[in-house]
Amino acid sequence: MARTALLGSSLTKKYWMALTGLFLCLFLVIHLAGNLQLLDASPEGRLKFNAYAKFMTTFPLIKVVSYLLYFSILFHAFDGILLAMQNRQARPTRYVKEKPSANRTWYSGQMALLGSLLLVFIVLHMKHFWYEMHWGGLPVDAEGNTDLFTVVAAAFQEPLYVVFYVVAMAVLAFHLLHGFQSAFQSLGLNHPRYTPIIKNVGVFFGVVVPILFALIPVWMFAFPG
Amino acid sequence: MGNMKLTLKIWRQNGPNDKGRMETYPVNDVSEDMSFLEMLDVLNDQLIREGKDPVAFDHDCREGICGMCSLFINGEPHGPGRGITTCQLHMRKFKDGDTIFIEPWRSAAFPVIKDLSTNRSAFDRIQAAGGFVSVNTSGNLVDGNAVPIPKDDADKAFDAATCIGCGACVATCPNGSAMLFVAAKVSQFALLPQGRPEAKRRVLAMVDQMDKEGFGNCSNTGACEVECPKGISLEHIARMNREYLAASVTKE
């Protein structure tokens, strides 16, 4: 029964892709809003960010939501891999000549690839900061909070880190450009009046959110403070 | 009469279990007024005269309403051009000296019978699973026109019902998904009062059969809508998604 409800049919799998995907979009907004604080490298800004990081890792409600978030990421990935495998089986012989540009955007047909790249990014990103924050044995700042700001600032003095994060955000942009509006269609929310609005919001979201995220490493590299 | 010389690269496959390969055929004397199928008739005439096996391809009405003709031409189902089937594709869309790739629909659910001819009976089985309205024929029939239906709903239902079941949506979908077909068949009844009593059972049964046939999943690329010879809209897929969600949540 539980299996049927979660992964029963092709459509059920799509509903869960859409719901987890939209939840991850909501997370992106919160994550972005919090991390834009990194742009303030003044001594007070550093203390403020570390206090925020402490709040986000200890406040009980945030902790509960964070477990839901980890589950959503894993389930979105697992469900996506399952869907991609079935899709591959549905076309065992490839076309000799195919012209995808005639009828679809390249990224709408590469969501599994883009998603896999993002999963790799998320693992490395969590190793860089999330793991360090929890178990890295980091020094504390003047207020006694774990000094995550210094770890982030040091990481983004490395050009390789900056390039890696900017490229990852480009991948995220294309994943969102298709994914955001696609989630609404999967849930059956298509209406002549609202769908054009949803599509425009999706393009705005898919461009602005990754650009602001990418701004953080670039800014911190350029202005170490 | 013909003034075009073409090179055709055609998929040849002796039977369902043959591996298949592309073969090259020159064809001369092609008139720009011929339909694509007439051009293949010319090729087959040539092959028969040479004592070779003609190319098998599906066709029937040759006026764009039966859904029988298929062919993946130069990377697109029914070739270049929008809102047409292969029989409505004319050779004036091509130039003298062109090389044209011709392949069958490629889908696990549409096995190749021979060459370019595929078995699309999976669509029939999906239709048989629920794509109908059960009518009581015991003598108490109600005149269809006695049920008032808003014009907009009737138009939308008719738009869905224009689906000819050709399978171009499956052929062009990167996932080999049949959602546009199934959505059209679900929508044409879901929009009408006569279809409502069985709506839940219908959408559940048709989607279930679609999955059993081995079609892929929809990732909303929209390729099907672009290539559909009848212009079936993605809105119908959203309607099917709504119908299925409501039916799965409330089924007993």
Account of the 3D structure:
The complex is a heterodimer of chains A (225) and B (252). By secondary structure, chain A is an all-alpha fold. Chain A has eight helices and no strands. In chain A, helix 2 packs across helix 7, helix 4 packs antiparallel against helix 5 and helix 5 (111-135) crosses helix 7. The radius of gyration of chain A is 20 Å and the shape is elongated. The model of chain A has no long low-confidence stretch (mean pLDDT 94). In chain B, helix 2 (121-130) runs antiparallel to helix 6. Chain B has two domains: 4-113, Roll (Ubiquitin-like (UB roll)), CATH 3.10.20; 121-250, Fumarate Reductase Iron-sulfur Protein, Chain B, domain 2 (Orthogonal Bundle). In chain B, 35% of the residues lie in helices and 13% in strands. Chain B is of the alpha+beta class. Chain B is built from eight helices and seven strands, in the order ββαβββββααααααα. The N and C termini of chain B lie far apart (67 Å). Chains A and B meet through helix 2, helix 4 and helix 7 of A and helix 6, helix 7 and helix 8 of B.
Helix content of chain B: 25-40%
How large is the radius of gyration of chain B? Answer: 20 Å
CATH evolutionary superfamily of the largest domain in chain B? Alpha-helical ferredoxin
Secondary structural class of chain B: alpha+beta
Stretches of chain B where pLDDT is under 50 for at least 5 consecutive residues are none
- CATH fold field value of chain A: 3 helical TM bundles of succinate and fumarate reductases
Strand content of chain B: 5-15%
Rg result of chain A: 20 Å
Distance between the termini of chain A: 56 Å
Could you say which structural class the secondary elements and strand pairing of chain A correspond to?
A: mainly alpha
CATH superfamily of chain A: Fumarate reductase/succinate dehydrogenase, transmembrane subunit
What is the total domain count of chain B?
Answer: 2
**CATH level-1 class of the largest domain in chain B:** Mainly Alpha
Helix count, DSSP H or I runs of 4 or more residues of chain A: 8
Helix content of chain A: over 70%
